[in-house]
Design a protein that fits this description.
Blueprint: H1 4-21, H2 32-49, H3 54-71, H4 74-90, H5 94-104, H6 113-129, H7 133-147, H8 151-167, H9 171-188, H10 191-207, H11 211-228, H12 231-247, H13 251-267, H14 271-287, H15 291-307, H16 310-373, H17 378-423, H18 425-439, H19 445-478, E1 484-487, H20 489-499, H21 501-506, E2 510-514, E3 521-524, H22 525-541, E4 548-556, E5 559-566, H23 573-576, H24 599-610, E6 615-620, E7 624-632
Parallel strand pairs: 2-4
Antiparallel strand pairs: 1-3, 4-5, 5-7, 6-7
Helix pairs in contact: 1-16, 2-3, 2-4, 3-4, 4-5, 4-6, 5-6, 5-16, 6-7, 6-8, 7-8, 8-9, 8-10, 9-10, 10-11, 10-12, 11-12, 12-13, 12-14, 13-14, 14-15, 16-17, 18-19, 22-24
Length: 635
């Protein structure tokens, strides 16, 4: 199975290496217009060939991107990214396609409505393949907005929207959208989308068990695919034929068409086309009672599914979305810093007001003292002054308390800066050193991969540290928001096993989830995931290779006790008392050099207590540790 993060990062690295090694001719700087013409030609050819020859189209788009970057030709960069998105869409690498299409948007001219409409249409089409129908509709609507009265783009809009309705099983709206698209595409002479619409109409008829009508549409779609050189659609049409003949119980014909479809899909790298063909062939042999061949193609189908794992697609999407969310997160940090600065200015302003009030009050008191000095009611005056003096003492106490709070805040700020400077500088310094060595050609690709594997646990630790710092800082500034719900700890444990599967495999650590099911706790689900995630991450960090990490639970009155146990190196008794106190901060490196700040445990303690529980630890050096916390049961 392809790992999502590894897939995208490796792909980007391969692109950069590939582009660096291509024999792109050096063109004189004063010949920029010639370069632009070359880029435009490459992009045009790539856009025309990605369906029939995706590998060739990818190479041309890559050259166009490299040349455009050299002369900062923004529209060339944007079109190259769009073409790369088309290529990976045609080969069913939808998350990567989405990444490139979104990358194109900043480079497209805001006044070029046609290009923007095309890009958003492609984004909507890709979200559709990822089964994110709401995002697909949103993107397609944006495409229609930019298309305006452009017949060709409106035809493309209805073409893609028809498939959304088909996937949502709304066949009447799908048929209406398809017929509207067919009308517009014919009017604009758009053979490619006309070809696609016939496959839409075929699918609608087949899904409503109108197999002969579906075959009629397939005939048109199949012969048009040669005119448009759309090998991807041709492969899909062959498989559609097979599904129709299965519906008509003509299984030999179905096997013949599906076999042809699988061969064509394999020749262009259409992974989901291969799996669909194997599924259809398997069904045909099952209906023929040919169990040997049915089992043979079931194995092929399962193998194809493994390479097209849905969770792998979603992880790719999350990675790409995280990439685009980075600037937003940086902006959030900037907003937090700006707010802290404003709060500090407010404190200074308030102090100035307090001092002014005190001085004014003293002047008033002196004036009152002088005025009443001449009166015989000296005793009443003294009593009044005494009461005013007591009020001043109260105000003084409040001021001293505020000063103490400000000093504590500054001390905590200095502590956090020291933690960040100490524990987060090292991995970035190491990465900078590796990049410098690579730039100086002191490292080959194999050495680079080796160093990156060694750096991975350090980077994972830094990533968790940053996440904990942001979570804790947010709780301190905005306060902790509690949204309680009924939570099954066993299910959370299963989710954590998936999240930390890679780290567990890196150290060959066995993860055991023996938390009892059927007993729900009342707590904020996000908080519980942060708590258990931090405790499991720490357990992995301090457990040697071939160790065991276990999550378990048991009832204790009206509470559920959750335990995270590891067979790691344990914690000395004199260090246990420091674990949950930020002011007595200390850190230890994990067994593979993973770093930490201690903020995670402090955050866990705060979140557990905020959800009505307690957190404690038992540990023995050389035998491991058990972190336990309690939570109230539902009801």
């Amino acid at each position: 199975m392809r790992r999502a993060i590894g897939q995208v990062l490796l792909l980007l690295l391969m692109h950069s290496m590939c582009y660096a090694q291509k024999d792109v001719p050096v063109i004189a700087v004063n010949n920029i217009e010639s370069i632009k013409l070359t880029v435009d030609s490459l992009n045009k050819n790539a856009g025309e060939r990605y369906m029939g020859a995706p590998d060739n189209a990818r190479e041309m788009a890559g050259k166009a991107l490299l040349l455009s970057e050299k002369i900062k030709y923004n529209i060339g960069i944007g079109l190259a990214y769009i073409n790369l998105g088309h290529v990976y869409w045609s080969q069913s690498y939808y998350p990567i396609s989405l990444f490139y299409l979104n990358s194109a948007l900043p480079y497209l001219p805001k006044n070029n409505a046609t290009l923007l409409a095309e890009c958003y249409s492609a984004i909507g089409r890709t979200y559709l393949e990822l089964k994110n129908y709401q995002q697909a509709i949103n993107s397609l609507n944006r495409s229609a907005k930019y298309a305006g009265n452009d017949t060709r783009m409106l035809g493309e809009f209805y073409t893609e929207k028809s498939l959304v309705y088909i996937r949502m099983h709304d066949y009447s709206r799908g048929m209406a959208a398809s017929l509207q698209a067919l009308k517009l595409c014919r009017a604009s002479g758009d053979d490619n989308n006309t070809n696609i619409i016939y496959t839409r109409l075929s699918s609608i008829q087949r899904l409503q068990k109108q197999f002969q009508r579906s075959i009629t549409y397939d005939d048109t779609a199949y012969y048009m695919s040669f005119k448009t050189n759309n090998r991807r659609l041709r492969a899909k049409t062959l498989i559609e034929y097979a599904d129709n003949y299965n519906g008509l119980k003509q299984f030999d014909k179905a096997i013949n068409y599906a076999t042809r479809g699988a061969a064509l899909a394999d020749s262009i790298g259409l992974m989901n086309g291969i799996s669909d063909a194997y599924r259809t062939i398997m069904f045909s042999f099952e209906q023929k009672k040919d169990l040997v061949n049915a089992l043979k193609f079931q194995k092929k189908y399962n193998g194809a599914l493994d390479s097209l794992n849905e969770s792998d697609r979603r992880r790719n999407t999350e990675l790409i979305q995280n990439y685009f969310a980075l600037n937003a997160r940086l902006n959030e940090i900037a907003v937090i810093e700006q707010k802290a600065k404003e709060d500090k200015n407010k404190i200074h302003f308030q102090n100035a007001i307090i001092i002014t009030l005190i001085i004014s009050l003293l002047i008033v008191l002196i004036a009152l003292y002088i005025t009443y000095y001449n009166f015989k009611q000296k005793k009443l005056l003294n009593n009044k002054l005494s009461r005013q003096h007591e009020a001043l003492l109260v105000q003084k106490g409040l001021i001293e308390e505020q000063s103490a709070n400000l000093a504590a805040i500054n001390k905590l700020k200095d502590k956090l800066l020291a933690v960040i400077g100490h524990d987060l500088r090292t991995p970035f310094a190491n990465l900078r050193s590796i990049m410098a060595l690579f730039d100086d050609n002191n490292l080959n690709l194999e050495d680079m991969h080796g160093l990156m594997k060694k750096m991975e646990p350090v980077i994972k630790g830094a990533e968790l540290t940053l996440s904990n710092l942001l979570e804790w800082a947010g709780s301190q500034i905005r306060g902790i928001n509690l949204t309680p719900s009924a939570i099954d700890i066993n299910l959370v444990g299963e989710e954590m096993a998936q999240i930390y599967n890679y780290q567990l495999q890196q150290k060959n650590i066995r993860f055991q989830n023996i938390a009892i099911t059927g007993h729900l706790v009342k707590a904020d689900e996000k908080h519980i995931k942060v708590i258990i995630g931090n405790l499991i991450s720490n357990a992995i960090k301090f457990t040697d290779d071939n160790g065991i990490v276990t999550i378990s639970s048991h009832l204790a009155g009206n509470e559920l006790i959750v335990n995270i146990n590891d067979t790691g190196k344990g914690i000395a008794q004199d260090q246990l008392v420091k674990l949950f106190n930020l002011n007595s901060h200390f850190t230890q490196n994990g067994t593979m050099g993973e770093i930490g700040t201690g903020i995670g445990l402090f955050l866990c303690k705060e979140l557990v207590e905020f959800n009505g529980g307690r957190l404690w630890v038992k540990s023995e050096v050389g035998r491991g540790s058990t972190f336990s916390f309690s939570l109230p049961l539902v009801g």
